[in-house]
Amino acid sequence: MAERIYLLDTTLRDGEQSPGVSLNSHEKLEIALQLARMGVDVIEAGFPVISRGDFEGVRMIAEKVKGPVIAGLARATKGDIDAAWRAIKVAENPRIHTFLATSDIHLKYKLQKSREQVLQQAEEAVRYAKQYVSDVEFSAEDASRSDFDYLCQVVERVIDAGATVVNLPDTVGYAVPEEFGDFIRRIMERVPNMHRAILSVHCHNDLGLAVANSLAAVKNGAKQVEGTINGIGERAGNASLEEFIMTLYTRRSIYQKELNIDYREIYRTSRMVSSITGMAIQPNKAVVGKNAFAHESGIHQDGVLKERTTYEIMSPELIGLPKSNLVLGKHSGRHAFNEKLKELGFSLNEEELNRAFQRFKDLADKKKEVTDHDIEALVKDEIWVIPERFKLQYLHFTGGSTVVPTATVGLVGAKGLVEEAACGDGPVEAACNAIDRITGLPGSLVEYKLNAVTGGKDAQGEVVVKVAVGNLKVLGRGLSTDVIEASVKAYINAINKAAYEISKPDQVGGVVDLNGNDDNRKNLG
Asked: CB neighbours (10 Å) of residue 477?
C-alpha cells in the first residue's frame, strides 16, 4: 500500500512574503477556503504576532475553514506562542508552529547565542506550546547548513518535549537533491525517537531545486512537504506544490506515495492565487502555465491528435483545466451560464450569480466569442470583492499626440454621484487624478501590470496595480475590453481596499503585540 504524504501549504505565510504581495484578511480567507477544497492537510495561515492584519487573518481562517489543520507561526518565545494560540484556538484542528535557527552562522550573527542556549530555548518553546495544543511543529531554521550532530541533538530534544512534527528547512535553497536526500536519511537513522514525530521539509528555490529536493526527501523518509501554490515566496520562492503533487502522481510507480488531493482544483487554485496576489504565472510554468499543454510544432500537434500521450504526460482535465475553450455568447441563458460555471469549478450564491450573469451579458455584447478564460476572469472579478465605498458610474477621456490628456470621472458613493475632471500625462493618470479629488484618498501608482485574458482585438484586458495611500500599499484589479477602463477600475479597486483598511478598528481584541517588526516574519525559511 502507498505511504501517505502530508502537504503543508504556506502560501498565506511564506508566500505572502514575496516582494510586493500584501493580502487583506478577506483575500486570505478566500485562498484558504480554496486550499481546503483542494485538500491540503495543513494551512499555515500566517504569523499572528507580527501585525494586527496577520492576527485577524489567521483568526478568521481558524474560525471559518474546516477540514485542514490550521497552523499559526511563532518564534520560540512565550509572547509569540501566546499570540499564535489566541489566533488559532477556535480552529477545528489547531497547530502551533514554532521555529528557531540551528546553524552556526545564524547562532553567531543573528541570535548571538551558544548552542546550549538555543537547545534549551527550543525545548522550552515546544513544552510551552504543548500546554495549548497537542499538535506542535518545530522548525530548525537553516537546518541544511547546521552541524549534523548538533541538529540531531536538537531534533531529539524537541521530540521529547512534545513536538509532533519536526521540520528541517533548506532555508536558503543551498542543498542539491542527492545531498539533501542523504541528509534526511541520516536524520531518520540517527535520531532515536524520530519515529514518534513526522519529519517535514521546507525547501527554497534559490537554485531552482526546491521541488527536486522535496522529492529526494520523500524518497528518504520525510512524510510532510511544505510549499506554496505557484512556488511563490521569499527571494526565488518555495517548492511549488502543484509541481510536487503532479510529480508524485505522474511517477507514482517510482515514489509509491499517496496524497489527499482533489487534483481537479489545482488549476483553479493556481489562478486564484495569481489573481489575488497580482503575481502573474510565467507562460512556460510547469503544470499550470498557459503553455503547459500547448503544442505549436507541427510534429507535436500531429502526435497529440493521434495519441495524446505522445507529447503529454498529464491530462489537462485532471488538474481542472477545461478541455473546451469556445463557450457562450450573447444569446446564452442564465441556466447555461450557471452550468458552465459549475464545469469551471465555481459555486456561486444567488447574488453572486446574478451579478456575474449581468456582467457576462455586458461582455457578450462587446465580444463575438466569450471563452472559458474570459468567464474565469469575470467571475473572479465578481467574487473577490471588498465593500465598495466608491463605484465607477462613467468615464470619459480625451487625448492625443497634440492634446493634453483629460478625463472626467463619475463615482457613486455615500453622497451619491460625484463628478470630477483632471489632466495628466496620459488618460490613466488623468482619470486617477480625478478619482483622487473625489475620494480624498490620493494614491501613488507603484506598480502597473496589463495582461490580455485571451487573444484577439476584442480581448479583455486585466490590469493589476499596486497603489500607495500614505504608508498603506494595496493591490487593485480591473477587467474590461477597454484597457483604460480596466486601469481605472483597478485603481478604484485599490482605493476601495485602502478605504476599507483605514476604516477598520485599530485594535484586534487587544491581543496583538504591535511592537513586532514586520521583517520578523521573514526569519523562517
From this structure: 22
